[in-house]
Amino acid sequence: MTAPSTAPAPIRKGRWIERWDPEDETFWQAGGERTARRNLLFSVLSEHIGFSVWTLWSVLVLFMGPEYGLTPADKFLLTSVVTLVGAVARVPYTFAVAVFGGRNWTVVSAGLLLVPTVAAFAVMEPGTSFSTFLWTGLLAGIGGGNFASSMTNINAFFPLRQKGWALGLNAGGGNIGVPVIQLAALAVIGAGGGPRVLLGIYIPLIVVAAGLAARHMDNLATLRNDTGAARDAAKDAHTWIMAFLYVGTFGSFIGYSFAFGQVLTNQFGRTPLQAAYLTFIGPLLGSLVRPVGGRLADRYGGARITLWTFVAMAAATAVLAGLRNSLALFVAVFVVLFVLSGLGNGSTYKMIPGIFRAKALALGLTGEEAASYGRRLSGASMGLIGAVGALGGVGINLAFRQSFLSHGSGTGAFAAFLAFYGVAVAVTWAVYLRRPAGRDRTATVAAEPAPQPGYAEV
User: Fold this and answer.
1) What is the end-to-end Cα distance of the chain in Å, rounded?
2) Which CATH architecture has domain 16-447?
3) Across-strand partners of 219?
4) Strand (E) or helix (H) holding 17
5) Which of 368, 179, 389, 202 is nearest to 276 (CA)?
6) Conformation bin of residue 101: beta by default, left when phi > 0, alpha when psi is -120 to 50
7) Would you put residue 320 in left (φ > 0), alpha (ψ -120 to 50) or beta?
8) Closest to 43 in 3D by CA, of 283, 160, 205, 216
C-alpha cells in the first residue's frame, strides 16, 4: 500500500478530476471513496439499460408468433447476430473511455441506445422481412458495448483491495438488465400488450440514464488515451487465457439468457407467456450473485473460485444433456447453471487486475508506480477479455440452433458445452493453481487469498 499522504480530497473541477490515487488511504478516506461510489452508482444504471437493450431480442422473439413467418432456426440466428455485435462493440467501447472520458462516454453510449430501440419500435410488426429484423438486431448489439466501457471506467476508480466487490457490483447491476426486461415483457404479455409497448417503456428510461450520468459522473484525467496499453495487453498471454475463461463464465450467462426462452418453447412446447414466467429467474439470480463471486475471490483467490465454478457447471450441464421430458427439473438445473455462471463472472474479473499488478511487482515496481502499471494494462485487457467472452454467447446460440436442426432438442449443444467446461477446468488448474518448482509467480498468484500482500488480489 502506498504511504499515506496529506493530499486533500479530490476536487471536482468541471467534469475532470486531475489527480486520482485510490491506493492512498488518506486520499481515499478524505473523499475518494465517496466520489468512486457515486460514479459506480450511475455507471450501474447506464450499464443496466445497455444490457436490457442488448438482450431485447431474446424477449422480442417470444412475441413473434407464426404470423411473423420465422422458424426456430431463424430466431436463434437473429439472437446470435445481436450477441456477436455486442461482443465486437466491446473493444472500441473500452478505449472510448480513455479518448472521451468515463462520464462523457457514459452519456454518449447511453444516448446511442435510443437508435436500436426506436428502430425496433418502427419495424416490429408481421410482414417485416427477416433481413430487416437482422439489420435492426445488429443495432441492438451496441448495448453490449456499454459493459466494457463501464468496467474500464470503474476499474480505475477503486483501489485494488476493493476491485472484486466494485467490479462485481458494477457488472452484476448491469447483468440484472437481462431479467428486468424479461420481467417487463412478462407484465406486458400478461396485460395483453405487444412488443411496441415494451419498447415504449424503455425509450424514456434511456433518456433518464443519460441525463443522470451527465449530471453526476466524473472523468478521470489519469485515463487519458494510451494506445500502447492496448498493444501491450494484447501481447500478454494472460489476456487471452482470461478471455478463454470468460467465454465459459460470461459467455454462458449471456448465451443462456438469449436462448433459455427459445429452448423452453421449442423443446418443451411452452407458450411465450409460459416461457416468460420462467426465463427471468436464471438471469436474475446469476446477476445477483456476481458480486458474491467477486467477494469470494477477494477472500479465497479468484482461481480457486473459478476452478470449482467450472467443475460445478460441467456437472450441471451433464444433467441437462440427459433431460428431455422433465420441465421442472430442467428449469431447476438450468437456473443453477445461471447462478454458477454469475459466480464465475465475478471471480474471473477479479483475477484480471491482480494478475497485472503481480506482473508489475515482478518487474520490480512498487507503490503507485506498480498500481498505475496494473490499472493501465488491466483496463486495456478488459475490453479484449470482455469481447472474446461475449463471443461465447454467439457460440451457445449457434450450438442450440444446430442441435435443434439436427436432433430436435438441445442435447447436442449441452454435450458441446460439457466438453468446453472440462477444458476450462484443466486450463484454470494448469495456469493458475499448479505450482511446480521454478514457476512464474505471476501465474500462480491467482490462487492466493486476500491476506497475502501483492498476490491476493487476483
Assistant:
1) 16
2) Up-down Bundle (1.20)
3) 16
4) strand 16-17
5) 179
6) left
7) alpha
8) 216
Give pLDDT tens digits for 247-293.
999 999 999 988 898 899 888 888 877 887 888 899 999 988 988 88
CA distance 69 to 66: 5
Amino acid at site 273: L
Q: How far apart are CA 407 and CA 421, in angstroms?
A: 22
- What is d(CA 28, CA 19) in angstroms, rounded to the nearest whole number? 12
* 217-234: pLDDT as tens digits: 999 988 776 667 778 888
Residue type, position 271, single letter: T
Residue 444 Cα to chain centre, angstroms? 25
Question: What's the DSSP call for residue 2?
Answer: P
Distance, CA of 167 to CA of 346 (rounded, Å): 8
One-letter amino acid at 43 equals: S
- What pTM does this model have? 0.78
Cell of residue 67, nine digits:
404470423
pLDDT 10s digits, 149-205: 998 899 889 987 888 788 878 888 888 998 999 888 888 877 878 888 989 999 999
